[in-house]
Amino acid sequence: MLEVANISHQYANRSHWLRRIPPTPVLNNISFTLEKGCCLGLLGMSGAGKSTLGNIILGLEKPTQGQILFEGQDLYRVNTPTRHRIRRDLQVVFQDCYSAVNPLMTAAQIIGEPLDNYEKLTSVQHKQRVKQLLEQVGLRAEDGNKRPHQFSGGQLQRINIARAIALNPKLIVLDESVSSLDMVNQMQILSLLAELKKTHQLSYLFVTHDIRAAMTICDRVMVIDQGELVYQDDMHQSMMQSNHPAVQKLIAAILPEHPSERIVFDHQV
């Protein structure tokens, strides 16, 4: 479904009053494929380049080099009608559930926005579809009348997910979509995503720094470090046993569930 072919990217030259700063390399020759119905985990520490790669796959940032092929179509070379169709099949759920929505819109308006842009539904059909989407993500039909500030973070992320699946897309990029939630809400959202993946035959690109979250939902995992793809595997256990420094960093970043097992640093006053 998705082929990322030899993607490299760097930020343009910047001028300083004394000198010209050279381009900053962000990604270096990244290649991988994502099959239909698969959840592929893209892991990496902060600054590794994973969010930039996610933006390139979404068509938000043109790469310096390489191709993004969605069902064989080059995302950055197709004509406008084809790009419009691809945008329907390629959706995203961002990390910050609050900034991803218009605070003045109701939940029903937020979820219905893609339907307004792509579908020609009657008022009755539109209302029924939004009701179905709310129920699919574990909310009530009457929640459609509420505004973002009336929801918890977990509930609002469910609304973002409902918006993402409204058009029955083929691929959803989940960009740190559970990292801002507490552990209970994380597990609930991950369970919901797994259920929707099965029900709707979805494919996911799960961008995260959390190995535990990735191992909960992903079929395959890969690790990006300093702009390079350094690890790929579909065997989670072998990842936990990997000696690669980038993988070890991710493992070391796992916070123990019980507070007594966490490292405590003493500060002198």
From TrEMBL:
The entry's keywords: ATP-binding, Ion transport, Nickel, Nickel transport, Nucleotide-binding, Transport
Entry GO MF terms: ABC-type nickel transporter activity; ATP binding; ATP hydrolysis activity; nickel cation binding
Signal peptide extent: none
Pfam families: ABC_tran
SUPFAM superfamilies cross-referenced by the UniProt entry: P-loop containing nucleoside triphosphate hydrolases
A GO cellular component entry from the record: plasma membrane
Domain (ABC transporter): residue spans on this chain: 2-251
CDD domains: ABC_NikE_OppD_transporters (cd03257)
Cross-referenced InterPro entries: AAA+_ATPase, ABC_transp_ATP-bind, ABC_transporter-like_ATP-bd, ABC_transporter-like_CS, Nickel_NikE, P-loop_NTPase
NCBIfam families: nickel_nikE
Descriptive protein name: Sulfate/thiosulfate import ATP-binding protein
